[in-house]
């Protein structure tokens, strides 16, 4: 039932002779079906935590377990494989390929190319009439919908989002967060977002606050 587990996780970045302690002993368990927002000031370690959750980096000390297995036990190429199969990423600036259509963007990461499935995913995010649109022909909210469909392409066990509403107005923030909430509730998808936006945070089940590389005691 535990998708992700952080046990006394430290992350130190070396900058010349200086050591920057980005994470200082994080303990965190994320159960299947959780919907979590990580909040906190700039520099508090949110992105670092998200990078470790997404196996984009490994801890300096302590362990990160994904589906019960220590990510350090995987070699570099196995980590990439694990990431591709288990993690869906969405980004503040959507990161779509401009030369590809919406449908092609969704198919891009697929382990087995399946245009029928890609269409279903686009239907799911409300873009059934826009399969063939290019990025420049889509609004910001629509681009983020394509990015969400793409993130779901390989049925990930966890969806990670770094400021998913950072470029969106209030109306689209509500729409995108509502969509994530539906995915969480209907499919039991585990979702972690990093956000500064209190409106976005209203949609999640649990807010985790970070400060100086640590998680503050939950205030509720
Ligand atoms: P947040 O996402 O909350 O803004 P980060 O996780 O990006 O925080 O950063 C935490 C700390 O680690 C900050 O002091 C930041 O400057 C530092 N940091 C982050 N990434 C790196 C890096 N690749 N190299 C050196 N320092 C980094
Ligand atoms: P942002 O959230 O602004 O898009 P990042 O998440 O990449 O940027 O970085 C957050 C913080 O970590 C910033 O303060 C940035 O200066 C610092 N940081 C990121 N990467 C590095 C790096 N390679 N070296 C030093 N500091 C870094």
Structural class: alpha/beta
Put simply, the count of helices is 7
Q: What is the approximate shape?
A: globular
Order of helices and strands: EEEHEEHEHHHEHEHEE
Q: Which ligands are bound?
A: adenosine-5'-diphosphate
What is the overall pLDDT average? 95
Protein name: Peptide transporter
Organism: Methanobacterium bryantii
Keywords: ATP-binding, Nucleotide-binding, Transport
InterPro entries: AAA+_ATPase, ABC_transporter-like_ATP-bd, ABC_transporter-like_CS, ABC_transpr_LolD-like, MacB-like_ATP-bd, P-loop_NTPase
Write up what this structure looks like.
It comes from Methanobacterium bryantii. This is Peptide transporter. Keywords: ATP-binding, Nucleotide-binding, Transport. The chain has 220 residues and is an alpha/beta fold. Helices cover 31% and strands 29% of the residues. It has seven helices and ten strands. The chain has helices at residues 46-53, 76-86, 102-107, 115-124, 140-151, 170-187, 198-201; strands at 2-15, 18-31, 35-39, 61-66, 69-70, 87-90, 158-162, 190-194, 206-211, 214-215. It has a six-stranded mixed sheet with strand order 6-7-8-3-9-10. A four-stranded antiparallel sheet has the order 2-1-4-5. Helix 6 (170-187) links the parallel strand 7 and strand 8 (190-194). The model has no long low-confidence stretch (mean pLDDT 95). Bound molecules: adenosine-5'-diphosphate (ADP) (2 copies). One adenosine-5'-diphosphate (ADP) binds next to loops.
